[in-house]
């Protein structure tokens, strides 16, 4: 889990935090010279004035170089940590039960996961250093100021604490609004993506106004929530500014009275005013960072909850089989009964055609074999055993093509057998398509390919994998009849010794099949 990653690196994170406190303490040293500079300037001692100006500059530069080095080191540590987190998430997803992946793909769970991952990027180290710098600044600032005047210190702390309580209450409202904004932002992004991807169909059916209206409605809701967050942020910032000025006014009032009585030098008053920010800024910074800390913690929790709910695959993968048996299999989607006490035996080397009207459950049978779906009741047995998965190859309507070349999509970037690949390219009639696109990437969701080209690339990918079982679900999609029948004839000859399940709305000669069923 992601929380465990942070626990494993706790010692390094703690070391960075403690180093941040040390660097924060060193950052205060240049300010020690400010009082000397002002006092020597007041009495006209130019040599001492120049001396302390030079010392101030040298120390300031050295401390900030050290600070930059520390932040740079911390940022690289966080980048490596985030990389390992992303690697672990990908490994977890790819080990997930295929039926749960099917469900997750139909929901926003992965969109939320991506959004939470963004919340983790470049957040931890800035928060740690801010906290470390703030603590060191507050402690040392308090020690220095109490030497001059403890009344001033108490006045600053009391005003800061009161303002902290007020701002914290305001930020609670901001946190709720931010959470609602995140949910609504996902709705807007999903709607935006649908419009971009489906723009052609929207225009084709003259539904521009419908989609524009729906998008504007979602966008207005997001805008309202974002404005609420901006209002809260602006009010809190204005309040911080007001309270800071109140602290300054208090210090000037008390300090001015001390200077007039001769109990405090002008340089000391200037130093106190400068040191004041060392006490007030940390308090305000911690308050401001509470929102970031809360977002960070919630993101880790949501990612862990998501990964915890995604169960890992726990089935045996078999390379070969003799029989697949559906025994009294029922499958329901809510109140919809897709299959009811369905029975079927598929033997090795069978060529099965599944017929049926749209929505009758033809594809469901194939997806039960692949474990994408689980039966509501009954069992699917492989050689008489439950919880078996066959190493198969398939073309489904929902198959994904990746933003890489056609050859890489077919071979998944593996070292390939050129003779075998050329034979499959010929079967799938991909020669012209390869000439057209060459080694170019085919775009996100294969947007550069036509429907028929996508089908042929998916078919070539399925054929390239050596399997004992092949499932072809509506592979006539996007293909004209002559081209489809030519391809189908060739692939059936190519897979003559294999088990094949074909699901298609097109009429296909029954001579290709050893058995045929209707759903």
Q: Kindly estimate the percentage of residues that lie in beta strands according to DSSP.
A: 5-15%
Judging by the overall fold, what is the CATH architecture of the largest domain? Up-down Bundle
Query: Any low-confidence stretches, pLDDT <50, length ≥5?
Result: 104-108
Tally of separate domains: 2
* Count of distinct strands: 10
Indicate the radius of gyration in whole angstroms.
34 Å
CATH class of the largest domain: Mainly Alpha
Q: What would CATH call the homologous superfamily of the largest domain? A: ABC transporter type 1, transmembrane domain
Helix content class: 55-70%
Report mean pLDDT, rounded to a whole number.
Answer: 81
- Trace the largest sheet across and list its strands: 7-8-9-4-10
Question: What's the CATH topology name of the largest domain?
Answer: ABC transporter transmembrane region fold
For the largest beta-sheet, the strand count, sense and barrel status come to: 5 strands, parallel
Order of helices and strands: HHHHHHHHHHHEEEEHEEEHHHHEHEE
Instruction: Give the quaternary arrangement of the chains.
Output: single chain
Overall spatial form = elongated
Distance between the termini: 44 Å
Count helical runs: 17
Structural class: alpha/beta
